[in-house]
Amino acid sequence: MASTKNVWFALVDSKGEAYNGTSASKVKISLDSTTIDQFRKAVKAEYVDSHLKGIAPSDLFVYANKAAFDGKDEPLGLGETIEDNGKLWTDPLLVVVRGPATLLDCIEGWIEPKNLCNGNGMRWKYQFDETLVGKLTAPLVEHYNAWESGYMDKTRNPLFMVLSGCGTGKSRMLDEMKELFKLAAFRTQHDLQKRICDAYVFKVNFENGTSYKADFEESEYEVSVRMLYQLVGKEGQTWIDFLADVKQHQNPFDLRCDFTIGCSGKERRNDNHPMR
Predict the structure, then answer these.
(1) φ/ψ (deg, to 5) at 27
(2) Which residue has the higher pLDDT, 101 or 68?
(3) pTM metric for this prediction
(4) Which domain of life is it from (predicted)?
């Protein structure tokens, strides 16, 4: 009779967090069957009717331990052996159960929005009225506090509007709005500082041929597509080409602002930026 040994492992998701609330467990394998391929099959058999139902052994990715996963090492190959890994419940093998590929997985980078102003004035230091920062401070903090508390009604979400005559600096101020918000946040010494310093800035407009031009009238969808362009678009890709990709692959009624914000969350996790 072949000798066996216990191998400790932990099921985790693609972020390294416990998969479906599971904790470290162990499987008994033969000393003659210690390859990663055989180990994956043993793990699958352990959860065949529960957590891994419908998931093939080939969809499981094995790492020597959490340190290897956090260090972004490659998963252990099929022909590799377990060796001394998984001997302790405090240092188990990590078995990653990846979810199905989604549009979020297509995000490779972030495209900064183009400035509204592109003339010689862009080289001038922006000169703003200090009182403007003071006027922005209170509603900005109020909006942040409401967001943190989960209040999303229109009475708690300030709408910043820029109204003035021609040539008075509206576009230039909007280009500098992120810096103005940063100054307002720093003035209050509020937790908002760390959130806003690396904020994503989405440019959402429908001028100069940049509308979606769909057959249905849904403003949220139009806005979401413009946001998505900066998240999954490629440098140098024209707006028309991007629209063709979206219309071909995305169900129009599945794309909403909360989905697009989820995309920015995915990008944030990729580059370790704070929430934007």
Answers:
(1) -125, 150
(2) 68
(3) 0.48
(4) Eukaryota
